[in-house]
Design a protein that fits this description.
Length: 265
Protein backbone atom coordinates (compact mmCIF):
# COMPACT_ATOMS: atom_id res chain seq x y z
CA UNK A 1 0.00 0.00 0.00
CA UNK A 2 1.40 3.40 -0.98
CA UNK A 3 2.09 6.04 1.64
CA UNK A 4 -0.56 8.40 0.24
CA UNK A 5 -3.22 5.69 0.24
CA UNK A 6 -2.30 4.66 3.78
CA UNK A 7 -2.42 8.31 4.87
CA UNK A 8 -5.87 8.78 3.31
CA UNK A 9 -7.18 5.63 5.00
CA UNK A 10 -5.75 6.63 8.37
CA UNK A 11 -7.19 10.12 8.14
CA UNK A 12 -10.64 8.84 7.14
CA UNK A 13 -10.58 6.29 9.97
CA UNK A 14 -9.71 9.03 12.47
CA UNK A 15 -12.43 11.36 11.18
CA UNK A 16 -15.10 8.63 11.07
CA UNK A 17 -14.06 7.38 14.51
CA UNK A 18 -14.41 10.88 15.96
CA UNK A 19 -17.89 11.18 14.43
CA UNK A 20 -18.91 7.79 15.80
CA UNK A 21 -17.58 8.65 19.26
CA UNK A 22 -19.51 11.92 19.40
CA UNK A 23 -22.66 10.28 18.04
CA UNK A 24 -22.37 7.51 20.64
CA UNK A 25 -21.98 10.10 23.40
CA UNK A 26 -25.26 11.81 22.45
CA UNK A 27 -27.10 8.51 22.02
CA UNK A 28 -25.82 7.32 25.41
CA UNK A 29 -27.39 10.36 27.09
CA UNK A 30 -30.78 9.62 25.54
CA UNK A 31 -30.59 5.89 26.24
CA UNK A 32 -29.66 6.53 29.87
CA UNK A 33 -32.67 8.84 30.28
CA UNK A 34 -35.04 6.33 28.67
CA UNK A 35 -33.64 3.50 30.79
CA UNK A 36 -34.32 5.45 34.01
CA UNK A 37 -37.86 6.35 32.97
CA UNK A 38 -40.68 4.15 34.24
CA UNK A 39 -43.24 3.79 31.45
CA UNK A 40 -46.00 3.22 34.00
CA UNK A 41 -45.46 6.72 35.41
CA UNK A 42 -45.33 8.65 32.11
CA UNK A 43 -49.07 9.05 31.59
CA UNK A 44 -49.88 10.00 35.22
CA UNK A 45 -47.06 12.54 35.18
CA UNK A 46 -48.09 14.16 31.89
CA UNK A 47 -51.73 14.41 32.96
CA UNK A 48 -51.24 15.73 36.47
CA UNK A 49 -52.56 19.33 36.89
CA UNK A 50 -49.14 20.93 37.40
CA UNK A 51 -47.59 19.39 34.29
CA UNK A 52 -50.69 20.05 32.17
CA UNK A 53 -50.42 23.70 33.21
CA UNK A 54 -46.72 23.78 32.29
CA UNK A 55 -47.35 22.18 28.90
CA UNK A 56 -50.23 24.54 28.12
CA UNK A 57 -48.28 27.63 29.18
CA UNK A 58 -45.26 26.50 27.16
CA UNK A 59 -47.36 26.01 24.03
CA UNK A 60 -49.05 29.39 24.49
CA UNK A 61 -45.95 31.46 25.20
CA UNK A 62 -43.82 29.73 22.55
CA UNK A 63 -46.49 30.31 19.91
CA UNK A 64 -46.88 34.00 20.79
CA UNK A 65 -43.10 34.42 20.90
CA UNK A 66 -42.72 32.76 17.50
CA UNK A 67 -45.34 35.01 15.91
CA UNK A 68 -43.70 38.13 17.37
CA UNK A 69 -40.23 36.94 16.36
CA UNK A 70 -41.29 36.25 12.78
CA UNK A 71 -43.07 39.61 12.51
CA UNK A 72 -39.80 41.28 13.45
CA UNK A 73 -37.37 38.89 11.75
CA UNK A 74 -38.92 38.84 8.26
CA UNK A 75 -38.71 42.57 7.45
CA UNK A 76 -35.52 43.04 9.48
CA UNK A 77 -33.79 40.12 7.76
CA UNK A 78 -34.86 41.40 4.34
CA UNK A 79 -33.43 44.84 5.10
CA UNK A 80 -30.23 43.27 6.39
CA UNK A 81 -29.95 41.06 3.32
CA UNK A 82 -30.35 44.08 1.03
CA UNK A 83 -28.03 46.40 2.93
CA UNK A 84 -24.53 46.86 1.58
CA UNK A 85 -22.81 49.76 3.24
CA UNK A 86 -20.61 51.06 6.00
CA UNK A 87 -21.04 49.47 9.38
CA UNK A 88 -22.57 46.29 7.99
CA UNK A 89 -20.22 44.01 9.93
CA UNK A 90 -20.81 45.92 13.17
CA UNK A 91 -24.58 45.85 12.61
CA UNK A 92 -24.60 42.09 12.04
CA UNK A 93 -22.35 41.52 15.06
CA UNK A 94 -24.76 43.40 17.33
CA UNK A 95 -27.78 41.58 15.90
CA UNK A 96 -26.03 38.25 16.50
CA UNK A 97 -25.49 38.97 20.20
CA UNK A 98 -28.55 36.91 21.29
CA UNK A 99 -26.96 33.91 19.56
CA UNK A 100 -23.76 34.01 21.61
CA UNK A 101 -24.75 35.74 24.84
CA UNK A 102 -25.73 33.29 27.61
CA UNK A 103 -29.51 33.39 28.17
CA UNK A 104 -28.96 34.03 31.88
CA UNK A 105 -26.91 37.13 31.04
CA UNK A 106 -29.53 38.26 28.54
CA UNK A 107 -32.23 37.79 31.17
CA UNK A 108 -30.19 39.82 33.65
CA UNK A 109 -29.91 42.66 31.11
CA UNK A 110 -33.68 42.54 30.61
CA UNK A 111 -34.26 42.65 34.36
CA UNK A 112 -31.95 45.64 34.76
CA UNK A 113 -33.78 47.46 31.97
CA UNK A 114 -37.19 46.65 33.46
CA UNK A 115 -36.03 48.09 36.80
CA UNK A 116 -34.88 51.34 35.17
CA UNK A 117 -37.10 54.42 35.08
CA UNK A 118 -38.19 53.63 31.52
CA UNK A 119 -38.85 49.98 32.32
CA UNK A 120 -40.81 50.82 35.46
CA UNK A 121 -42.91 53.34 33.52
CA UNK A 122 -43.69 50.70 30.89
CA UNK A 123 -44.74 48.22 33.56
CA UNK A 124 -46.80 50.78 35.45
CA UNK A 125 -48.74 52.13 32.48
CA UNK A 126 -48.75 49.26 29.98
CA UNK A 127 -47.79 45.72 30.96
CA UNK A 128 -46.20 44.01 33.95
CA UNK A 129 -43.29 41.77 32.97
CA UNK A 130 -41.29 40.87 36.08
CA UNK A 131 -42.51 37.58 37.59
CA UNK A 132 -45.48 37.51 35.21
CA UNK A 133 -46.42 35.54 32.06
CA UNK A 134 -45.60 38.48 29.72
CA UNK A 135 -42.09 38.30 31.18
CA UNK A 136 -41.81 34.74 29.84
CA UNK A 137 -42.69 35.94 26.35
CA UNK A 138 -40.28 38.87 26.60
CA UNK A 139 -37.45 36.61 27.77
CA UNK A 140 -38.13 34.05 25.06
CA UNK A 141 -38.31 36.78 22.41
CA UNK A 142 -34.99 38.26 23.49
CA UNK A 143 -33.29 34.86 23.20
CA UNK A 144 -34.88 33.39 20.06
CA UNK A 145 -35.48 36.40 17.81
CA UNK A 146 -31.83 36.31 16.76
CA UNK A 147 -32.27 32.74 15.50
CA UNK A 148 -35.32 33.74 13.46
CA UNK A 149 -33.46 36.72 12.01
CA UNK A 150 -30.41 34.67 11.05
CA UNK A 151 -32.40 31.90 9.35
CA UNK A 152 -34.56 34.38 7.43
CA UNK A 153 -31.52 36.34 6.28
CA UNK A 154 -30.02 33.11 4.95
CA UNK A 155 -33.29 32.41 3.13
CA UNK A 156 -33.30 35.85 1.50
CA UNK A 157 -29.59 35.63 0.66
CA UNK A 158 -30.17 32.34 -1.18
CA UNK A 159 -32.72 33.89 -3.57
CA UNK A 160 -31.70 34.97 -7.06
CA UNK A 161 -32.09 38.79 -7.04
CA UNK A 162 -33.10 38.72 -10.70
CA UNK A 163 -36.60 37.54 -9.76
CA UNK A 164 -37.22 40.73 -7.83
CA UNK A 165 -35.54 42.86 -10.49
CA UNK A 166 -37.82 41.45 -13.20
CA UNK A 167 -40.86 42.11 -11.01
CA UNK A 168 -39.76 45.72 -10.59
CA UNK A 169 -39.38 46.17 -14.35
CA UNK A 170 -42.97 44.93 -14.76
CA UNK A 171 -44.23 47.82 -12.65
CA UNK A 172 -44.39 46.33 -9.16
CA UNK A 173 -43.28 48.46 -6.26
CA UNK A 174 -40.60 47.13 -3.93
CA UNK A 175 -43.26 46.25 -1.36
CA UNK A 176 -45.40 44.46 -3.95
CA UNK A 177 -42.38 42.55 -5.26
CA UNK A 178 -41.55 41.52 -1.70
CA UNK A 179 -45.07 40.27 -0.96
CA UNK A 180 -45.73 38.58 -4.33
CA UNK A 181 -42.28 37.29 -5.27
CA UNK A 182 -39.78 37.25 -2.39
CA UNK A 183 -42.02 35.87 0.38
CA UNK A 184 -43.52 33.00 -1.68
CA UNK A 185 -40.03 31.99 -2.83
CA UNK A 186 -38.87 32.08 0.81
CA UNK A 187 -41.67 29.79 2.04
CA UNK A 188 -39.32 26.99 3.05
CA UNK A 189 -37.15 29.43 4.96
CA UNK A 190 -40.21 30.81 6.74
CA UNK A 191 -41.30 27.34 7.85
CA UNK A 192 -37.79 26.37 8.93
CA UNK A 193 -37.30 29.61 10.84
CA UNK A 194 -40.67 29.34 12.59
CA UNK A 195 -40.06 25.69 13.56
CA UNK A 196 -36.61 26.40 14.98
CA UNK A 197 -37.81 29.52 16.79
CA UNK A 198 -40.80 27.72 18.31
CA UNK A 199 -38.74 24.78 19.54
CA UNK A 200 -36.10 27.10 20.98
CA UNK A 201 -38.84 29.08 22.74
CA UNK A 202 -40.31 25.94 24.32
CA UNK A 203 -36.92 24.97 25.73
CA UNK A 204 -35.76 28.43 26.86
CA UNK A 205 -34.80 28.51 30.54
CA UNK A 206 -32.10 30.94 31.65
CA UNK A 207 -33.63 34.29 30.69
CA UNK A 208 -37.10 33.07 31.68
CA UNK A 209 -35.91 32.15 35.17
CA UNK A 210 -34.33 35.58 35.70
CA UNK A 211 -37.21 37.68 34.36
CA UNK A 212 -40.33 35.63 35.17
CA UNK A 213 -39.11 33.52 38.07
CA UNK A 214 -39.96 29.91 38.89
CA UNK A 215 -43.44 30.02 40.39
CA UNK A 216 -45.44 26.81 40.32
CA UNK A 217 -48.58 27.07 38.18
CA UNK A 218 -47.93 30.76 37.49
CA UNK A 219 -44.79 31.12 35.37
CA UNK A 220 -44.08 27.39 35.19
CA UNK A 221 -43.23 26.47 31.61
CA UNK A 222 -41.70 23.07 30.78
CA UNK A 223 -38.09 24.11 31.34
CA UNK A 224 -39.01 25.67 34.68
CA UNK A 225 -40.99 22.53 35.60
CA UNK A 226 -37.86 20.43 35.00
CA UNK A 227 -35.89 22.78 37.24
CA UNK A 228 -38.50 22.67 40.02
CA UNK A 229 -38.72 18.87 39.88
CA UNK A 230 -34.92 18.64 40.02
CA UNK A 231 -34.90 20.85 43.12
CA UNK A 232 -37.42 18.50 44.76
CA UNK A 233 -35.50 15.38 43.63
CA UNK A 234 -38.44 14.19 41.52
CA UNK A 235 -36.28 12.27 39.06
CA UNK A 236 -39.04 10.52 37.11
CA UNK A 237 -41.02 13.73 36.60
CA UNK A 238 -37.91 15.56 35.43
CA UNK A 239 -36.90 12.77 33.05
CA UNK A 240 -40.39 12.55 31.56
CA UNK A 241 -40.46 16.28 30.83
CA UNK A 242 -36.91 16.16 29.47
CA UNK A 243 -37.85 13.40 27.03
CA UNK A 244 -40.92 15.41 26.02
CA UNK A 245 -38.71 18.39 25.19
CA UNK A 246 -36.37 16.03 23.34
CA UNK A 247 -39.25 14.89 21.13
CA UNK A 248 -40.21 18.51 20.44
CA UNK A 249 -36.62 19.31 19.52
CA UNK A 250 -36.32 16.34 17.17
CA UNK A 251 -39.57 17.31 15.44
CA UNK A 252 -38.39 20.89 15.00
CA UNK A 253 -35.02 19.72 13.66
CA UNK A 254 -36.76 17.41 11.21
CA UNK A 255 -38.84 20.33 9.91
CA UNK A 256 -35.74 22.52 9.73
CA UNK A 257 -33.82 19.86 7.80
CA UNK A 258 -36.72 19.34 5.41
CA UNK A 259 -37.46 22.99 4.66
CA UNK A 260 -34.20 24.71 5.50
CA UNK A 261 -31.64 22.17 4.37
CA UNK A 262 -30.17 24.47 1.73
CA UNK A 263 -29.85 27.46 4.04
CA UNK A 264 -26.53 28.59 5.39
CA UNK A 265 -27.03 29.76 8.94
Amino acid sequence: MSKSRFGNTAFWTLAAGTLLLYFSFLVALVVAAIARTKLSTVQPILFCPEIKFAIGLSLLTATITTVLSMLVAVPAAYALSQYRGRGQSLLEAILDLPLVLPPVALGFLLLVFLQSSVGLAIQEHFLQFVFEVPGIILAQFAVVSGFALRVMKSAFDSLDPRYEEVARTLGLTKGQAFMRIVLPLSRNGLIASAALTWARSVGEFGATLIVAGAFERKTEVLSIAIFLNWQLARIHEGLTLTLLLLCVSLLALALFRKFGGVLRV
